[in-house]
Amino acid sequence: MRAWSVGATGDPAQVLERAEVERPEPGKGEVLVRVRAAALNFPDALMIRGGYQERPPLPFTPGIELCGDVVAAGPGTQAVVGERVMGASVLPHGGLAEYAIAAADMLFPAPARFDDAQAAAFTVAYQTGWFALHRRAALRSGETLLVHAAAGGVGSAAVQLGKAAGARVVGVVGGAAKAAAARESGADAVVDRTLYPEQRAFAQALKDACGPGGADVVYDPVGGAAFAASTKAVAFEGRIVVVGFAGGEIAQAATNHALVKNYAVLGLHWGLYRSRAPELIRDAARDLAESVQSGALTPVVSRRLEFDQAAEGLTELAAGRSTGRLVVDVAG
């Protein structure tokens, strides 16, 4: 079968290779999925570079998220062969291939209202947002939510989830086009960080946009300067949820400042729930399915790529040039 393979870590454009590999076989609790589409995620690029906390053995096929059809089930599974599903793959047999392996309990029926690209782009971003906003930060209706990288994949999902929860959402973006994308996702106010190159002015812009009370919840997949500015804009008893470091700089939390201002810094690694508390992921999936059915949540797919464009898409994503989700059409 055709697949993208990583034989050595490095830049995606240099180390990703088209290859013919053996079709994998599902093990206990696993299913084999014929891939329709695979969404690209920042962790894909980090894993290819060898810089992610999870390091699959080489060689591996990237693509942590997919939509496809169940074609075979391993021992101990109750998967329905032929069902169209979405969810997370099990590396080293990721979604950038004709066939991928997935854990049966991490797959969910693909909603009929989603096409293959939208279904492929749903699970990781919306599960991450749900856990960050609801389980970790306990976002309440009427609160103010500040979302960094609000035009990106996880950011646009967080904006939609915040609006669905009844929050006022302030999005932070980098550029006019991304500002428009954040507004289309539902952001009530948008701060274009490129207009505030000086850190103090950026922090003040966040405070102004959030209002006198500040941000009750901050969703931060960026780190670095974004985190530092957020500590200036966070509300009394506010919660900053650290989701990632897409900006390339790991922020350092000043615990004395958190004490004086009475705010919390919370970490979220969604992937850890897959091994520690998978039942919570299923709970989140049920809650998310209701919001999908109501029309409140729809993945923003900005670009649909052909299979041969996977490396190009990962390079664009890692450089921060994309808005919404980039999805590879594997079956086409």
UniProtKB/TrEMBL annotation:
Protein name (Swiss-Prot/TrEMBL): NADPH2:quinone reductase
Every Enoyl reductase (ER) domain range: 10-328
Matches recorded under PANTHER family: QUINONE OXIDOREDUCTASE-LIKE PROTEIN 2 (PTHR43677:SF4), SHORT-CHAIN DEHYDROGENASE/REDUCTASE (PTHR43677)
One GO MF term attached to the UniProt entry: oxidoreductase activity
Pfam families: ADH_N, ADH_zinc_N
Coiled coil feature spans: none
